[in-house]
Design brief:
By secondary structure, the chain is of the alpha/beta class. It folds into two domains: about 1-190, NAD(P)-binding Rossmann-like Domain (Rossmann fold, 3-Layer(aba) Sandwich), CATH 3.40.50; about 195-340, N-(1-d-carboxylethyl)-l-norvaline Dehydrogenase, domain 2. About 40% of the residues lie in helices and about 15% in strands. The protein contains 15 helices and 13 strands. It has helices at about 25-35, 45-55, 100-110, 125-130, 175-180, 190-200, 205-210, 215-220, 220-240, 255-260, 265-270, 285-290, 300-310, 315-325, 335-340, and strands at about 1-5, 15-20, 40-45, 55-60, 65-70, 75, 90, 115-120, 135-140, 145-150, 155, 165, 185-190. Strands 1, 2, 3, 6, 7, 8, 9, 12 and 13 form a nine-stranded mixed sheet that branches. Strands 5-4-11-10 form a four-stranded mixed sheet, covered by helices on one side. A hairpin with a 4-residue loop joins strand 4 (about 55-60) and strand 5 (about 65-70).
């Protein structure tokens, strides 16, 4: 079992890339790598593949960047293609709940040792995948930014940041290509602090989904920020008990972020100017899942906090409440005030 930035030109790609999970992250990252010269194969759900076949793949960002690939130039698959052989790199981009099943599908086709980089939310997907398919080399990664599907085949990055991954020999040859694709990639000897730092930010995903608001409008709503701050405080307590120091993902250290979130709007907008550098198109993927009636990743985010707290003799009742609210058969948006009241704030 193995667990394990933009330039003008890229060296020749080390080989083909297989995107396992052609959703918002998979299509954006895969689309940028494709535009930089890589051979990219996409495995996805019929809905997404149908859109790509009809419209091609467009990847845009808030700085005005744009890349397009015609449908005829895309390699699209409904399952892992056996004819592909051994791709030098697999990007695992399925939702957290589908990790084990996707890992088993990959292991049934790919040779032992094939490197698979997890670009998923949460902190445990590489471990889950390694347990399901120990023959492959599982590399944890982190996507810092928001990506939304604006239209069929059109995926837009609405916030900033750099991809992160564990430092591993299998990833180092890919750095020039990621750089040329406009995908800054930072390699870390220990990714766990980065993953938990991102999870503190991702605790806003269920807040955004249940608020019923676009991301920027939700951040400007104090009721929503108070909920997010309460979830972060539970996570920070659990992290202290576990001896984990989360990486700083915003202009403020993680320990100071909840206090800023609770401030009135007139002060928050001054303190959080960088955080509010979000275009109006941005929304959380969890809000998309809620709108489409799909299962959400709330257990990989809020549930991870609950489990960490329990492992160290603590409780995280508000994170547990978010899991409860989003785990019913057909969850609906509550609105900011009702959400705050549900959490007893």
């Amino acid at each position: 079992m193995n667990l394990a930035a933009p330039g003008p030109e890229a060296a020749a790609p080390p080989g083909p890339v297989l995107v396992m999970g052609a959703g918002s992250v998979g299509c954006f990252v895969g689309g940028r790598l494709l535009a930089a010269g890589a051979e990219v194969h996409f495995v996805g759900r019929p809905r997404v593949l149908q859109a790509l076949r009809a419209h091609g793949l467009t990847a845009t960002d808030l700085e005005g960047g744009r890349s397009q690939a015609a449908a005829a130039g895309l390699h699209l698959h409904e399952g892992v293609p056996a004819s592909l052989g051994a791709p030098p790199l697999v990007l695992l981009c399925v939702k957290s709940g589908g990790t084990a099943a996707a890992a088993a599908q990959l292991a049934a086709v790919l040779p032992a040792g094939t490197p698979v980089l997890s670009l998923q939310n949460g902190v445990a997907n590489a471990e889950v995948a390694a347990a399901a398919a120990p023959s492959l080399t599982w590399l944890p990664g982190m996507v810092p930014y928001n990506i939304a599907e604006l239209a069929p085949g059109h995926f837009h990055r609405g916030t900033t940041g750099a991809l992160a991954a564990v430092d591993h020999p299998a990833l180092r040859p890919w750095s020039p290509l990621f750089q040329a694709a406009g995908l800054r990639l930072k390699l870390h000897a220990d990714l766990r602090p980065v993953q938990w730092g991102k999870l503190l930010i991702n605790l806003n995903n269920p807040v955004n989904a249940l608020s019923g608001l676009p991301l920027r409008a939700q951040l400007l709503n104090r009721d929503c920020r108070r909920v997010w701050a309460a979830l972060q405080l539970e996570a920070l307590a659990a992290l202290r008990a576990a001896g984990i120091t989360p990486a700083q993902m915003t202009a403020l250290p993680p320990q100071r972020l909840p206090l800023m979130l609770k401030q009135p709007n007139w002060l928050f907008t001054r303190l959080a100017a960088r955080m509010l550098r979000i275009d109006d198109k941005a929304r959380s993927s969890m809000a998309d899942d809620l709108a489409l009636g799909r299962p959400t990743e709330v257990d990989a985010i809020c549930g991870a906090v609950v489990r960490l707290a329990q492992a160290h003799g603590l409780k995280a009742p508000r994170c547990a409440k978010m899991v409860e609210l989003l785990s019913v058969a057909k969850p609906e948006a509550l609105g900011p005030r009702a959400l705050r009241q549900q959490l007893g704030l």
